[in-house]
TrEMBL record:
InterPro entries: DUF4136 (IPR025411). Residues 1-24 form the signal peptide. Keywords: Signal. It comes from the Bacteria. This is DUF4136 domain-containing protein. Residues 54-217 form the DUF4136 domain. Coiled coil: none annotated.
Length: 234
């Protein structure tokens, strides 16, 4: 492929990225949620188990907060968004943890950033192509040359940037089993986004949404979630 064609592909890739920005998150989930308790759960095959699942009472969940989380306006906002997504799954938001079937633990964080260096190509003129225009002058045919610059990679430069990792953590535990001192975790999910942007507040809602694409999602695997955006990437 010629340098000019390579440059065209490079420009088209940039324009495509600018035309449809996306929020990209890596989602890792492990869960053992009972079948039939969520709208998104696969239906039980048949028989008495299917009837029991259909008649099962919706599970109620409540948030278990630390002292600092309980007095955080930001946490309260994100908690409400997370709760709305869980309600859409067929669960009931119970404000009193003692009356809930499940307890939800939710947290978020951003690291101090890691420096990353890479080589970026420098584009410039690498030569000229020529074409000739046929002109009749004074009864003679004259060919006038026209020169066109050829664009390509003329060098490289080192680019340094800081990449921040922004994360959301969600755990769901069976309250009664937890009260017995037994292993009670039903779900643990982690959503991670890496960006040059160190803004956490705008990223947390997107990270929460990524956990529900779908929910609970495949257990024991990590997957990439891309969500189209109409505003600049947070």
């Amino acid at each position: 492929m010629s340098p000019r064609a390579l440059f065209g592909v490079f420009v088209l890739a940039i324009l495509a990225g600018c035309a449809s920005p996306s929020f990209v998150a890596t989602v890792s989930v492990r869960h053992q949620l009972p079948a039939g308790v969520l709208k998104a759960s696969a239906p039980v095959a048949s028989g008495a188990a299917a009837v029991a699942a259909a008649m099962a009472k919706p599970k109620a969940f409540a948030f278990e907060r630390s002292a600092s989380q309980a007095q955080s306006l930001a946490y309260q906002q994100y908690e409400t968004e997370l709760a709305q997504h869980l309600v859409e799954q067929g669960l009931i938001w119970q404000r009193d943890p003692k009356a809930a079937d499940w307890l939800v633990r939710f947290d978020y964080q951003i690291d101090d950033g890691k420096n990353k260096s890479y080589q970026q190509p420098i584009w410039g003129t690498i030569g000229y192509s020529v074409s000739y225009q046929r002109v009749i002058s004074g009864g003679s045919v004259v060919f006038i040359p026209r020169y066109y610059p050829e664009t390509g990679i003329v060098g490289s430069q080192t680019v340094n940037e800081t990449i921040y990792t922004r994360e959301v953590f969600v755990d769901i535990l069976d309250r009664k089993t937890l009260d017995k001192g037994e292993f009670a975790k039903l779900y643990e999910g982690r959503a991670r986004n890496r960006s040059e942007n160190d803004e956490l507040d705008t990223a947390v809602p997107w990270l929460i949404r990524s956990l529900f694409k779908p929910f609970p999602g495949p257990s024991g695997v990590s997957r990439e979630v891309r969500m189209p955006m109409t505003t600049p990437t947070p």
